[in-house]
């Protein structure tokens, strides 16, 4: 059974930093594409960043230069380093694991105060 578990969310002031982690268990990790998405209240879920199995990242324009996605295959973990956070980054952040199909975590809340 595949499990996707996010952690690292919290409350931070504008300009601050957080690092999110996502651990995948129950399935192969190193060949899978991974991604971070977020959903703010009243809005649709949107892509934040993705990373291929080979480590190539892709970012939404709104987070380029501030967020960094990375993966550590030996730990079945993908990270999202978020710097220079803004109030508009406030959302529930979800991890997506893609291997033949999509698996999602339960989400972790990120709140940025102004």
Uncertain stretches: none
Instruction: Indicate the percent of residues in helices.
Output: under 10%
User: Rg to the nearest angstrom?
Assistant: 13 Å
Strand content: over 45%
Secondary-structure element string:
EEEEEEEEEEE
Largest sheet: 7 strands, mixed
Overall strand count: 11
Shape descriptor reads globular
Distance between the termini: 40 Å
> What do the pLDDT scores average to?
96
- Count of individual helical segments: 0
| Content-based structural category | mainly beta
Chain-wise SSE layout:
Layout (H helix, E strand, L loop, with lengths): L2 E5 L2 E4 L4 E8 L7 E7 L6 E6 L5 E3 L7 E6 L4 E6 L8 E8 L3 E3 L3 E6 L1
Parallel strand pairs: 2-11
Antiparallel strand pairs: 1-3, 3-8, 4-5, 4-9, 5-6, 7-8, 9-10, 9-11
What does this structure look like?
It is built from no helices and eleven strands. The chain is mainly β and about 110 residues long. Strands 2, 4, 5, 6, 9, 10 and 11 form a seven-stranded mixed beta sheet that branches. It has a four-stranded antiparallel beta sheet with strand order 1-3-8-7, with no helix packed on it. A hairpin with a 6-residue loop joins strand 4 and strand 5. It is globular.
Give a short summary of the structure.
This protein is mainly beta and 114 residues long. 0% of the residues lie in helices and 54% in strands. The strands form 2 sheets. Strands 2, 4, 5, 6, 9, 10 and 11 form a 7-stranded mixed sheet that branches.
Features:
single chain; mainly beta; seven-stranded mixed beta sheet; 54% strand; globular
